[in-house]
């Protein structure tokens, strides 16, 4: 395999600036709907679905493109294109012409770019030493969620900082991210012809599907990831903003605080992984346990407890989610050869983000139909039942770490 120049330091910096901007987006988008435009739970669910539904259409082609294009250049182009929907939103805000329809259209444009970015960004990890992959992934997730937490904090200052100013800051951060990805994976000029001609795109997609079709354990990993997006994550996107609005007339700062506590849990989990010298011996079993744990925590949130109980519960929810994130990606990086890894990651992301828009839409309707408390309780019960079924009957429960399957690639 041809060696590639890759700077993990600049990659981490790009992850930081990109997710600082994403943290602003995570709070501003739903609060713009429920706090400013007074959207109903079903409208919020639909808007969150619009933000995520492009993943169903574009994340697989994005994985194929990422395996065929120079990733650093491709990521720089995509991050720069974020300026288009943000500039449109800024123009509408300046003219005070914001509407739910306009925000939903913004979400579709923004979500399309995100769907193309994810497999390219995650697959750059292929150039990291595979035998410390779990530590490298944990470092990336720590930087990602610390940066998001800072973004949540700034977004929570909406009302003290003008909305248009926050949009300009977000646009600046995306430009910085584009430049940093170029530095992390610069294009090398080569006079030699490529050793492998590009394959048919549909053939490459079929090869990606075959990775999971031929290994039931990996297929069941996708099922569990889809259920994660459909249930806990779908409820997280819709239930948390509504909970923040209902609790003591909470504003964007309360929503930001909730997001920060969740993020601190994710960071704590990954800091623990960074200290772990050996890879996980039973990552599949830990994935199932963390899924069950999230369902149990939703029972507590269902009864809208006082802050002294709600806040640590959100932290633990983030901790279990953070552990699950690094486990799922570690399984993929340890089980899939490097030449197919972007496609495997895109399928993994498709299941997570494919289940999430459906879950956001479903949970929005569920909350509107039976109320916030009953919706949280119902999702908690279904999550626990699925986890028990996987533990009792799925080979994922017995999946070991198999680092010998990796095609090693060293960092240049």
What do these coordinates show?
With 412 residues, this protein is mainly α. It has a single domain, classed as Growth Hormone, Chain: A. The chain is 77% helix and 0% strand. It is built from 15 helices and no strands. The chain has helices at residues 8-36, 41-52, 54-68, 71-81, 83-94, 100-123, 133-155, 163-184, 201-213, 216-246, 252-274, 283-302, 307-335, 341-370, 372-393. Helix 1 runs parallel beside helix 7, helix 5 packs antiparallel against helix 8 and helix 10 packs across helix 14 (341-370). Residues 189-198 and 403-412 have low confidence and may be disordered.
Mean pLDDT: 84
Which CATH class is shown? Mainly Alpha
Low-pLDDT regions: 189-198, 403-412
Structural class: mainly alpha
CATH architecture: Up-down Bundle
Output the radius of gyration.
21 Å
Please give a quick description of this structure.
This protein is mostly helical and 412 residues long. It is built from 15 helices and no strands.
Defining key terms:
412 residues, Growth Hormone, Chain: A, 15 helices, mainly alpha
What is this structure's SSE topology?
Blueprint: H1 8-36, H2 41-52, H3 54-68, H4 71-81, H5 83-94, H6 100-123, H7 133-155, H8 163-184, H9 201-213, H10 216-246, H11 252-274, H12 283-302, H13 307-335, H14 341-370, H15 372-393
């Amino acid at each position: 395999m041809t060696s590639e120049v890759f700077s993990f330091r600049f990659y981490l910096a790009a992850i930081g600036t990109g997710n600082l901007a994403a943290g602003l987006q995570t709070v501003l988008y739903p609060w713009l709907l429920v706090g400013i435009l007074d959207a109903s739970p079903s409208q919020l669910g639909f808007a969150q679905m619009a933000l995520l539904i492009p993943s169903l259409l574009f994340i697989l082609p994005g994985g194929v493109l990422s395996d065929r294009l120079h990733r650093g250049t491709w990521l720089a182009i995509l991050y720069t294109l974020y300026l288009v929907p943000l500039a449109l939103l800024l123009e509408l805000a300046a003219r005070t012409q914001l509407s739910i329809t306009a925000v939903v259209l913004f979400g579709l444009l923004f979500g399309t770019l995100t769907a193309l970015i994810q497999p390219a960004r995650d697959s750059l990890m292929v150039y990291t030493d595979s035998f410390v992959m779990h530590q490298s992934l944990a470092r990336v997730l720590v930087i990602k969620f610390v940066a998001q937490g800072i973004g949540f904090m700034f977004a929570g200052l909406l009302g003290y900082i003008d909305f248009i100013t926050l949009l300009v800051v977000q646009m600046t951060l995306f430009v910085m991210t584009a430049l940093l990805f170029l530095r992390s994976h610069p294009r090398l000029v080569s006079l030699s012809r490529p050793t492998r001609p590009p394959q048919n795109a549909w053939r490459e997609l079929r090869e990606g599907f075959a990775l999971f079709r031929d290994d039931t354990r990996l297929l069941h990993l996708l099922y569990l990831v889809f259920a994660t997006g459909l249930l806990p994550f779908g409820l997280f996107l819709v239930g948390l903003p509504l909970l923040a609005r209902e609790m003591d007339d909470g504003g964007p700062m309360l929503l930001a605080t909730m997001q920060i506590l969740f993020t601190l849990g994710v960071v704590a989990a990954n800091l623990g992984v960074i200290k772990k010298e050996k890879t996980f011996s039973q990552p599949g079993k830990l994935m199932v346990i963390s899924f069950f744990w999230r369902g149990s925590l939703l029972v507590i949130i269902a009864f809208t407890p006082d802050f002294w109980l709600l806040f640590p519960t959100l932290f633990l929810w983030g901790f279990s989610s953070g552990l699950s994130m690094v486990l799922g990606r570690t399984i993929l990086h340890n089980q899939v050869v490097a030449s197919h890894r972007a496609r495997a990651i895109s399928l993994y992301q498709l299941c997570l983000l494919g289940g999430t828009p459906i879950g956001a839409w479903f949970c929005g309707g569920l909350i509107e139909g039976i109320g916030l408390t009953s919706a949280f309780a119902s999702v908690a019960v279904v999550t626990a039942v699925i986890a028990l079924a996987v533990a009792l009957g799925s080979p994922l429960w017995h999946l070991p770490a198999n680092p010998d399957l990796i095609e090693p690639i060293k960092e240049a």
